[in-house]
Design goal:
Blueprint: H1 4-19, H2 26-35, H3 57-62, H4 70-76, E1 85-86, H5 96-100, E2 102-109, E3 114-115, E4 119-127, E5 130-135, E6 139-146, E7 150-153, E8 159-160, E9 166-169, E10 175-178, E11 182-190, E12 198-199
Parallel strand pairs: 2-3
Antiparallel strand pairs: 1-2, 2-4, 4-11, 5-10, 5-12, 6-9, 6-11, 7-8, 7-10
Length: 202
């Protein structure tokens, strides 16, 4: 069962990570300020909601990773099966392979373990899938925790990323990701966080 101390360890690791650099991307300063008062909160009762892509956790934990993200991965690993994982309902059309290899947990946000209406802090797992072009109103910062995903922004080509890399998306900026093997990503939104991302026709 998910406990407040274990969840607080994970959220504290994320807060410490974002605190390392609040200059490059201004939204990280907002995330630090919004997360800080949550560190002392007891979490509401949370029912586990595992999804099939959690079978990749063993490979994720064993992967090479940047030293700055190690505390996040180490805090997630023992409680991954106790968290509520979810999927964007707009993506059901992608079929069983995609849904078996994708999912995210909203730690903070409208449907988060800790409810919040101004930010989303989430962790997501993808493996061997293409996440097609999509966009959303809030600004977004991705950090690659493990894996070697490729990111595409607007009309650019796919660019390989690795553990520790940051990827920023401005409001309504189209972007896509491609995954070969398991990747664990941290994604946070700032702004109007109530709606899901929607696909962009190309």
């Amino acid at each position: 069962m998910l406990t407040s101390p274990a969840f607080r360890t994970l959220l504290s690791a994320i807060h410490a990570f974002y605190s390392l650099d609040t200059e490059t991307y201004p939204l990280t300063k907002t995330l630090v300020d919004e997360i800080e008062p949550l560190l002392s909160h007891a979490i509401p009762k949370t029912e586990p909601a595992p999804l099939p892509m959690l079978r990749h956790m063993e490979m994720i934990v064993a992967a090479d990773m940047h030293p700055t993200v190690v505390p996040i991965v180490n805090a997630l690993a023992p409680i991954a099966n106790e968290l509520p994982w979810m999927q964007n309902p707009n993506y059901a059309k992608f079929g069983k392979h995609y849904l078996d290899n994708y999912g995210f947990t909203m730690l903070v946000g409208p449907a988060g373990v800790i409810p919040h209406d101004r930010i989303i802090v989430s962790l997501g797992i993808w493996s061997d899938v293409l996440y097609p072009m999509h966009h959303h109103e809030p600004e977004e910062i991705y950090h690659v925790l493990t894996g070697t995903p490729d990111f595409r922004v607007a009309d650019s080509g796919f660019t390989p990323k690795q553990s520790g890399d940051a990827i920023f998306h401005a409001t309504w900026e189209p972007h896509a990701q491609r995954f070969e093997g398991p990747s664990l990503l941290m994604a946070s939104w700032v702004g109007n966080v109530e709606a899901y991302a929607v696909l962009v026709e190309e």
